[in-house]
Design a protein that fits this description.
Keywords: Membrane, Transmembrane, Transmembrane helix. By secondary structure, this protein is α/β, with parallel strands linked by helices. It has two domains: 3-73, no CATH class; 97-216. The protein has helices spanning 7-44, 50-59, 61-70, 75-95, 134-143, 154-164, 175-188, 209-216, and strands spanning 102-107, 118-120, 123-125, 147-151, 168-173, 191-196. The strands form two sheets. Strands 4-1-5-6 form a four-stranded parallel sheet, with helices on both faces. α7 links the parallel β5 and β6 (191-196). It starts with 6 loop residues before the first helix and ends in an 18-residue tail after the last helix.
Length: 234
C-alpha cells in the first residue's frame, strides 16, 4: 500500500480540509462584520472600532467591498470612508512631526493647460505665473517650512521620499490616487494625510486648498500671518 493510500495521509488531508474550511468561513464572517461596521460608520458619520477596521480592511479589502455592495454602498463611499478613517488615525502622529520633516505632494493635473513649468528630476518647478492656484499655495506651504513637490506620478514620489526621507506627508489627488498613496506610505512607515480633489480629471483639476492648509497647520501653534483656512477652492 502506497503512502497516499495510508491512514496517516487520509487523516492529514482531512485535517487540512477542515482547517481550510474554517479559515475560509472565518474570513467570510470577518468580512461581513467589517462591512457592517463600515456601513454603520458611513451612514451614521461616526467611526466604530477603528483599530479593527483598518487592518481588517487592508487584509480583506476585496471581500469587504463585495459585502458593502450588498449593503448598498459603492466603492467610492468605501474608499472615501477609508481615507477619512486613516486621516483621523494619523492626525496625532502628523501633528507631532516637525514641519522640516514633512512634505507635500501635488499632482501635475492641478496646473493650468498653459502652464510654462518645466519637468525636472524632482517634478515640475512652478514659475508662479498666476495661471492657476498652485503657485500661490505652494509659496504659502514653503513659507511654513514644507517641501512641496508637483509630481506626474508615484515614481517621482518614491524617488523624493528616498532622497529626502520625510517622516510625514500630505498627498493631494483624486480618490484612488490618495488611497494608493496612503497605502504606499503605510508600507514604508510614513505618516500620511490625504486630501481629495474637489474636481477630478486629467487637466486643470481643482484641489481642496482649504483642507490642504488645514492639514499643513496641524501641530503648528503660530503662523506668521492670519490665513482663512476654510476659504473656497478655485
Amino acid at each position: 500500500m502506497s503512502f497516499l493510500d495510508s491512514e496517516i495521509w487520509i487523516q492529514l488531508m482531512t485535517l487540512i480540509g477542515e482547517v481550510t474550511f474554517f479559515l475560509i468561513l472565518g474570513m467570510l464572517l470577518a468580512a461581513v462584520a467589517l462591512a457592517i461596521i463600515a456601513a454603520a460608520s458611513i451612514t451614521r458619520g461616526k467611526f466604530y472600532l477603528p483599530q479593527i477596521l483598518i487592518p481588517g480592511m487592508v487584509l480583506l479589502e476585496g471581500l469587504v467591498k463585495a459585502f458593502c455592495k450588498l449593503l448598498g454602498l459603492d466603492d467610492k463611499d468605501l474608499i472615501t470612508f477609508f481615507i477619512t478613517l486613516r486621516n483621523t488615525m494619523n492626525t496625532k502622529a502628523f501633528s507631532e512631526t516637525p514641519v522640516e520633516q514633512r512634505a507635500v505632494f501635488l499632482p501635475q493635473c492641478l496646473r493650468s493647460a498653459q502652464c510654462p513649468a518645466n519637468l525636472t528630476p524632482e517634478g515640475l518647478k512652478c514659475r508662479n505665473c498666476g495661471r492657476c492656484s498652485v503657485g500661490e499655495n505652494t509659496a504659502w506651504l514653503e513659507k511654513r517650512g514644507y517641501r512641496v513637490f508637483i509630481v506626474p506620478g508615484s515614481t517621482f514620489i518614491k524617488r523624493m521620499v528616498k532622497k529626502y526621507h520625510p517622516r510625514a506627508i500630505i498627498g493631494v489627488g483624486c480618490l484612488m490616487e490618495v488611497k494608493d498613496g496612503i497605502d504606499m506610505s503605510d508600507r514604508i512607515g510614513i505618516v500620511a494625510l490625504g486630501v481629495v480633489n474637489l474636481k477630478d480629471g486629467c487637466v486643470e483639476t481643482v484641489a481642496d486648498w482649504g483642507a490642504v492648509r488645514d492639514a499643513a497647520m496641524l501641530g503648528i501653534k503660530h503662523s506668521s500671518d492670519p490665513v482663512d483656512f476654510h476659504g473656497p477652492a478655485e
